[in-house]
Design goal:
Elements: H1 2-16, E1 20-26, H2 46-70, E2 75-81, H3 85-95, E3 101-104, H4 110-116, H5 119-126, E4 131-134
Parallel strand pairs: 1-2, 3-4
Length: 135
């Protein structure tokens, strides 16, 4: 779904001569950010957590940047750490003076959406900017 959002955003940006800010919001390092049951002694270190975030961002951004480059769209790639991804995204969008947020909706429903909440829904609810949701 994120691939579709990147393609949509870069196509729109190319059509109007806009710049794109690719954003990835990662959880900050805390014991609660480890999403699997493992013994305390085996928890990743802060350095390992940071390295994993950098590697993940490098992979995600490489695809987005390749698409933008092919479409001759100017871009920035920014990683933000925030415990609430939707807040981190909105803060970044406001800081960078974005005109539009384009994001994917993974379409979680039922119990999963109830327990996890939808980051897309939270962005839609709290954003002062227009939001284009790609499914």
């Amino acid at each position: 779904m994120s691939y579709r959002a990147v393609t949509t955003a870069t196509t729109l940006a190319a059509a109007i001569g806009a710049e794109v800010v690719f954003a990835l919001v990662c959880f900050p390092y805390t014991v609660s950010s480890v999403h699997m049951p493992i013994p305390i002694g085996l928890l990743p270190s802060h350095a390992e957590h940071e390295k994993a975030n950098r590697e993940h961002a490098k992979h995600v951004f490489s695809v987005a940047e390749m698409i933008a480059t092919k479409k001759k769209v100017q871009f920035q790639s920014i990683t933000v750490e925030h415990a609430q991804p939707w807040r981190g995204l909105l803060q970044l969008a406001n800081t960078k003076l974005c005109d539009l947020i384009c994001m994917a909706s993974h379409g979680r429903g039922g119990l999963s959406a109830l327990l996890l909440g939808s980051e897309t829904q939270k962005v839609l609810t709290h954003s002062q900017l227009p939001v284009l949701v790609v499914r």
